[in-house]
Every structure is written in structure tokens, then in C-alpha cells.
Amino acid sequence: MKSSIFKKNMTIFCLSTSVLLLAACKPKQTTTTSQTSQTSQTSQTTGNSSSTQATVSENSTSPSTNTSTSTSDPATTSLVPQEATGSWAGTSLQAVDISVTITADGKITTSANFGSGGVDDIREYSAVITGLKTIAPNTYIITSHTGDFNALLPGITGLGGVGVIKPGFKIENGQYTPISVSGASEEELNYQNYGTYSFALSSN
Q1: How confident is the prediction along the chain (204 residues), in pLDDT tens digits per residue?
Q2: Torsion (CA) 187, 83, 203, 137 in degrees, nearest 10
Q3: DSSP secondary structure letter of residue 119
Q4: What share of the chain is helix, strand, coil (3-state, %, to 5)?
Q5: DSSP letter at 157?
Q6: Of 82, 105, 79, 121, whose CA–CA distance to 203 is shortest?
Q7: Dihedral angle, C-alpha 127, 132, 135, 139, nearest 10 °
Q8: Could you tell me if residue 142 is left (phi over 0), alpha (psi between -120 and 50 degrees) or otherwise beta?
Q9: What is the longest distance spanned by two Cα atoms in the chain?
Q10: Are the beta carbons of 141 and 186 closer than 8 angstroms?
Q11: Secondary element (H or E) of residue 57
Q12: Any residues with CB less than 8 A from the CB of 136 and at least 6 apart, and which?
């Protein structure tokens, strides 16, 4: 009899304990589930935020990568003044016939006949002016060139001596006058003290 009562009491105790344990466990599971859900939502939110930030970052850098660059060819610049371009002809104290052709990009071709006594001595030269210095109105000194130096002083020969000679030209009254400056060195050149050769060529 006592044994039966004891068993019944133990059964009731076990049931009560189970109920209490279940009651205690359910909130924890709910909390865990809630925390897991919040964590998942936070992770998704963070992921979406990162994606948004990445999109903004890419959009913010796109203007610099789309900077336009001009592909048009630069216009050809004229090195030689327009009034000096064209064909020129005449004579000098040394040449009975001189012809000169100058283009805007600096190409110069010359022909001069230094013959005498009925015997021709025709000399043809060509050069390209690559540097030009304005020393006075319509007056220029050739500071650099490629090709034959003689093309830059048409109708003139026999120049010698020690030092530096810079040829040039002056355009005045529709005429082309060869000029030059000279000095012992580049540093001693006086561009305001240029010399002429007592002749001028006319536009041809």
C-alpha cells in the first residue's frame, strides 16, 4: 500500500518537474529564435547596406573615368609670317639671278647663279626653318634650322671668319631683304644691330 502511494507521488513529482522544465525551456527557445531572426535581419540589412555603399562608390568614381579627351588634330601652325611666304626673285652683287620660295611651315628653297663671263654657276639649296625670332617689326632672325645654311642667305657667298652668324630677313614695301647678326659667340649676338647685303628680292 505504501509502495503504491510512493509510486503515485513520484509520478506526480516527475510530471510536475517535467512541466516546470518545459515551461523554463520554451522562453529560451523563443529568445534564441528571436535572436537568430534578429541576427539574420541584421546580417541582411548589413549586406544590403554594403551593397548600397558599393553602388554609391562605383557611381561616385564614374565621372573621372568618363573624362573626355579631345581627339581632334591640332591645327597646323604657321612658323613663317604670311608676308614672307611665296616666291621671290632678283639679283645681288654676287648673283645674276636669284629665286627663293618659302612656305608657311618653314621650308625654303633657293637657286642662285653666281656665274660670270658668260659661264653659269647655278647653286641650289634647301633648308627648313625651325626657329624664328622677331627682332623688330617685320624683321626676323632664324635661330634654328635643318638643311643647308646657304639656303638661308640666298644670293650671298664667301662668308667666312670666326664667330657666329645668324641669318634672317626683313619684309618691307613688298620686298624680301636678307639680313644677319654676328658675334664672337651666341651670348654676344646683338639682335638690334643687324646687317644687310645691299639688295632686296621682289615678290614673284
Answers
A1: 444 544 455 555 545 544 444 444 444 443 433 444 444 444 444 444 444 343 333 333 333 222 333 333 333 346 899 999 999 999 999 999 999 999 999 999 999 999 999 899 999 999 999 999 999 999 999 999 999 999 999 999 988 776 899 999 999 999 999 999 999 999 999 998 999 999 999 998
A2: -50
A3: B
A4: 35, 35, 30
A5: -
A6: 82
A7: 50
A8: beta
A9: 167
A10: no
A11: helix 2-65
A12: 170, 192
Grid coordinates standing for 86? 611665296
Helix H, strand E, coil C: the string for 161-182 is CCCEEEEEEEEECCEEEEEEEE
Q: Which residue has the cell 646683338?
A: 190
C-alpha cell, 16: 510536475
